[in-house]
């Protein structure tokens, strides 16, 4: 008769106690509060360092590739920073005069465009063949007053927002520090990137090291996927809008197209802003010729189709984990609190908060608080 070997009891998965979850939640909350407090206190001097860190984050993968090809790390870092500075200077020399001229002309023509739109709207409202329009807008509607109020409110909002950025980012006044310090900071960060990461990794408690590394990897993938991918999307869309609007003959098409592409970084805001400005200028410029107004509308519809179906799925992907509403809130909140520096750190902080919240939710679902079982 064969002897039956006793079966070993299956090890039970240790459940997470409520006290452990509370300690971890308090630790991460305190860490987040300290980081935000330091950013708020040092916002006036942080701009060159934040920009330098962002540049280093973007250039480190390229520097690593050069190093794998046999280029010394010092030479590779110096080469990447030099190329970055040269590209920036060339772009400034080529684009700044054109954009500056268009911006000045656009600002000087805004009153003419507003007057033209007021005249067109008043003509439509007074047309006896369109009684529904007057009923829809109201009997006491006055185009002059309504558009003036709308423009005034828009200008007031933009002015208030720009003042908050300026007051929250007074280091913009010191352009010398931004131009000189940023490349130096970027170079040292690119050169010492992996040593700094290894040093910070060595400070992590051993029993939490795997968890923190996993969270850091999720944060890195979220930030890299969004920043690098969305930057490419903004560059492609800005070039497309600028070229297409200029070929369509729209006044200030280059300026409107580039601005629309750049602020595509904020979901839906960039495309809607560009569409509103372009249609307003097109109506004031081309009316009563409908063809070119429809062409301008079609350019933005094509741009949105390309972004939603080709660029964003291929370049950004679905693994970023940043919901558009959360991203817009983070940009506005951090921009209001920290000025221009807040806009730069909004995406990394939003991605980090998102990863930590998802981690805390997973731990909660595994804990006795959710399952109702006591930890043994």
Description:
Helices cover 81% and strands 0% of the residues. It has helices at residues 18-41, 43-68, 73-126, 131-137, 143-168, 175-203, 209-247, 253-262, 269-286, 290-316, 324-338, 340-365, 368-371. The radius of gyration is 27 Å and the shape is globular. It starts with 17 loop residues before the first helix and ends in a 5-residue tail after the last helix.
SSE pattern, N- to C-terminal: HHHHHHHHHHHHH
Alpha carbon gyration radius: 27 Å
The largest β sheet comes out as: none
Helix content: over 70%
Mean pLDDT: 76
- What's the total helix number? 13
Beta content comes to: under 5%
Number of strands: 0
